[in-house]
Amino acid sequence: MINGIDDYANEGKPDCQLALKEHHDYVATLTKLGVAVTTLKPLEDYPDSCFVEDPAVVFDDFAVITNPARSTRQKERELIRPAIEHFYADKQIFAITSTGTLEDGDVMPVDNDLIYVGRSARTNQAGIDQFTKIAAKFGKTVKMVPVKQVLHLKTGTTYMGNNKLLVSGEYIDSPYFKDFDQLPAGEDYAVNCINTGNGVIMPAGFPGVKGLLTDNGFTTPRGQHVRIQQDRRWPDLLVTTF
C-alpha cells in the first residue's frame, strides 16, 4: 500500500498500521449500518488494489469492468472480475476496451437513471463513449462533466440523495449541476462521503461539512466518522484488505 500511486509526495508515506486500523473501522462501520460487505484477499503485487471502486462500476442490473489509465493498475481488471461474477450473470458484465479509459471515481449516478461521468486524467472520451452505449442498454443516460482541478469527478462532488449535491472547488456553482441543490463543502477533503441509507459516513475532523449535512437532513451517527476514499451508495460493497 505504501508503494501505491502517489500524487501527494509532500505528505510523506502512508502509515501502514494506521491504514489497517482505518480499513478495519471502515468495514465495521459499513456492517453496523446494514451494508453487506465482501472482503477480498489482498493483492500484494498491486499496491493500489485497495481502491476497488476504480476497476469496476456496479449497478443493480449490470457491471462494467473498467480500463484504468495507469498501466500499473491494468491487471486489477482481471483480478476483480471473479468477485463481480459472483453477483452478476455473464450477460450483465461488460468491459471498457483500449483505447478507452474509465475509472469509477469518475462515475456518479444520481436519480432518474442519470449518470454523470467525469472526463479526467483517468477517464477519456473514448471510455465515456463506450460506457454511454453500455448504460443505454439499461435505460440510463450519461452526461459528461470536465474534470480540470481534481483527480476524479467524485473527488470534487458527491450525490447525497434528495436532489442534494455536496460540491467543492471547481464544482461550486457549476452550470453542469444547475438543477441540483448544491451544498458547498468548504472543507474539500470531506466531500468524500457515503450515504448508506441508514446514515452518512464521512471523514473525521470536518465540523463544517458535518454541520452542513445535518442542516440538510442527513444524519452522521456518532462514531461513524472514519477516513474513507470510496464514495458509492450501493446495498453491497466490495472491500479489499491490505
Plain-language structure description:
The protein has five helices and 13 strands. The protein is of the alpha/beta class. The strands form five sheets. A three-stranded mixed beta sheet has the order 2-3-4, covered by helices on one side. A three-stranded mixed beta sheet has the order 5-6-7, with helices on one face. Helix content is 21%, strand content 21%.
Biggest sheet overview: 3 strands, mixed
From the N-terminal CA to the C-terminal CA, the straight-line distance is 7 Å
* Amount of helix: 10-25%
Strand content: 15-25%
The CATH superfamily bears the name: L-arginine/glycine Amidinotransferase, Chain A
Rounded average pLDDT: 89
Question: Strands of the biggest beta sheet: in what spatial order?
Answer: 2-3-4
SSE string, helix = H, strand = E? HEEEHEEEHEHEEEEEHE
